[in-house]
Each structure stands twice: as C-alpha cells, then as structure tokens.
Amino acid sequence: MDAVFHALAHDARRGMLRRLAAGELSVGELAAPLRMSLAAASKHVKVLEQAGLVERTVTGRRHVCRLRPRPLSDATAWLRFYEGFWDARLDALQHVLDPPHPSVHEEAP
Amino acid sequence: MDAVFHALAHDARRGMLRRLAAGELSVGELAAPLRMSLAAASKHVKVLEQAGLVERTVTGRRHVCRLRPRPLSDATAWLRFYEGFWDARLDALQHVLDPPHPSVHEEAP
DNA sequence: GTTATCCTCAACCATATGGTTGAGGATAGA
DNA sequence: TCTATCCTCAACCATATGGTTGAGGATAAC
Asked: Which residue intervals define the domain HTH arsR-type in the entry (chains A, B) (predicted)?
C-alpha cells in the first residue's frame, strides 16, 4: 500500500500510467515525452513495477510495459472509506460540529 | 496531488487519517498509539497538514486536528479513471489481448 | 562482422524522509 | 509561583529519492 501511494506521488509516474491505459509502451516510448534522461525514466518505471502497477515483457532489446491496475483498486478501496466526508454538506458542517460524527461510517479499512 | 499521494504513502499517516475520521484528536492523541517519539508524530501531522488533509486549531497548549477530506476526493477522482481496468474480466483479458483496448475510456484525467 | 539502438547498471550528487534527542515556549493546575 | 503537560523547534543521523553521466550488454540492421 505504501508502495502504491508512493508510486502515485510523482507526476512523471502518473503520466506513465495514464499513457499505459491506452496500450502497451516500451520504456523508451514512456521516457520520450519526459524532460529527463532515459535512465531516470527507467527508474520511474521500476518504481511502478515494484508497486505492482506495471508489468514488463522483454522482447528482444525492447522492454514493453503494460498496466497492471489491480493495486489501484486497492488504493481506491482504501479511499472509498472517506467518501462520505467528501460530501459538500458534511464538509461544511465540519466547521460547525465539534466533534464531527459521520454516523454512516463505523469501521476503518 | 503529489503532496496528497505522498501523505498517503505512510502507514502512520493513513492511520492518523483513519482515526481522525471518527472525530477530532490532539497531536498527542494521534501520537499515542504510534511507536515513535512525539516529535516524529508531529512531523507526520505536518505532512498531512501541508497536503491539506488535516486542519489544526490551537486551543491553549493543545493542537487539535480534524480531517479535511476534500483532497482525498481529488485523489479518488484521479483513480476513478482506471476503474474500468479493475474489472476482473478486463484484467484477465490483458493477458490475451495485445495491445489492450479498453474502449470505454477515451480521455485521461 | 560492424554498427546503431534500446535499455540497464553503477557511480555520483543534492535534497528529502523518517527517525532520534535535547531544549524550550506556552499554558494549565497546584 | 511553581510545576507538570503539550507541543514545536533545532540539530543530528541514516537512508531514500530523483536526477545526472558514462559504460556496456544484448539485440537488430546492414
């Protein structure tokens, strides 16, 4: 979980995931639009890979990456616990109520 | 966005958010169950605060914290783009199709 | 075989993280 | 007033992050 959120905590890596959602890409293709060296981009790919968000297949000299979205569903499941709090009305009530008691939620993820 | 995901990328901070969902807590109360110094926990609170996830009110010598969940909704909105990919059937198809074409999704967040 | 391409690796550097301890400011309670 | 409590701050340390460059392995192309 730490690894997943950490992987998402960098714009370059989120961009990679976004582009991988449209289909497979090689490391070089992932690196191309980024203003950094290929080696740096390669490290970002490795971070995504170690978080389980990206899978790599080496075909010849190309390392082709594809999205492995399952860990994202875990992250969303975690966040979903707080959905009730996003509600604008509750958000506003937070200023008034002390302490807030969102009775809808009892257990934490 | 980086700050929000970074804030979520540590178990101690996620634990703080979870407990704050049940109501306001002081820094000391947030720190109590953690196996680290008060100063360390205080730093974690500051990370949550700078990500906009926690708001602090100083009343006397107590620093009382409350959940500020709005940034979590932004994070979830970002993740929601990938919802289609979590589907088990699509997940399985990923092994077969090359490249994957989840036609449901066109634009990225 | 030679060369160009794709990518990783290792070394290096600057800065950020995550923890500690010790000092101390501010407030509450006696 | 004196003391205990809550919390931040500063200094310090080890390690992780995020970037660079240079070298080189493996494969494709010629």
From this structure: 1-87
Q: How far apart are CA A12 and CA A56, in angstroms?
A: 18
pLDDT in tens, A54-66: 999 999 999 999 9
Of B56, B43, B58, B45, the residue nearest B17 (C-alpha): B45
- Do A87 and B76 contact (CB within 8 A), yes or no? no
| Residues B36, B2 contacting (CB under 8 angstroms) | no
Residues in chain B: 109
For B50-97, what is each residue's pLDDT tens digit? 999 999 999 999 999 999 999 999 999 999 988 877 664 455 555 554
Read off the pTM: 0.83
For B7, counting Cβ atoms within 10 Å of its Cβ (0-12 exposed, 13-18 middle, 19+ buried), the class is buried
B14/A77 Cα distance (integer angstroms): 13
Residue A80's CB is within 10 A of a number of other CB atoms, namely: 14
- Residues (pLDDT < 50) of chain A are 88-89, 97-109
Name A residues 26-65 whose Cβ lies under 7 Å from strand D: 35-37, 39-40, 43-44, 47, 59-61
> What pLDDT does A5 receive?
98
Q: Hey, what amino acid is at B99?
A: P
A86: nearest Cα among B31, B57, B69, B78: B69
- Strand-pair partners of A64: A26, A57
